[in-house]
Write a structure and sequence with these properties.
The protein starts with a strand and ends with a strand. The chain has 1 helix and 11 strands. 35% of the residues are buried. The strands form 2 sheets. Strands 2, 4, 5, 6, 9, 10 and 11 form a 7-stranded mixed β-sheet that branches. It has a 4-stranded antiparallel β-sheet with strand order 1-3-8-7, with no helix packed on it. With 123 residues, the chain is mainly beta.
């Protein structure tokens, strides 16, 4: 069964950067899974941030992060990355990666989820 583990979160000042990683085990991402990144802030619903197709040829971003976040994947390493630049306090949340058949920003389209990594943007 596919397992996902996120890493790379932390505390960063506004304007700073982080790179999140989503490492997969138990299956091969390349052949089966699109990957989405989601986030959830306290008291708010989980929202889609970005997603990438199985081949990496198609990506999508939420309007709130376009131009600041970049998703990529290294299928040889079974890992998907989310580069977070120009971070704002409103980006503070737990970030999750998820695997599914089709790359969308809808949480219910995904079957497998990681445990999440905390990103805190504060001065």
């Amino acid at each position: 069964q596919l397992q996902l583990v996120e890493s790379g979160g932390g505390l960063v000042q506004p304007g700073g950067s982080l790179r999140l990683s989503c490492a997969a085990s138990g299956s091969t991402l390349r052949y089966y899974y699109a990957i989405g990144w989601f986030r959830q802030a306290p008291g708010k619903e989980r929202e889609g941030v970005s997603c990438i197709s199985r081949s990496g040829g198609s990506t999508n971003y939420a309007d709130s992060v376009k131009g600041r976040f970049t998703i990529s994947r290294d299928n040889a390493k079974n890992t998907v990355y989310l580069q977070l630049n120009s971070l704002k306090p409103e980006d503070t949340a737990v970030y999750y990666c998820a695997a599914g058949v089709v790359a969308t920003l809808r949480p219910y389209d995904y079957d497998y989820w990681g445990q999440g990594t905390q990103v805190t943007v504060s001065s």
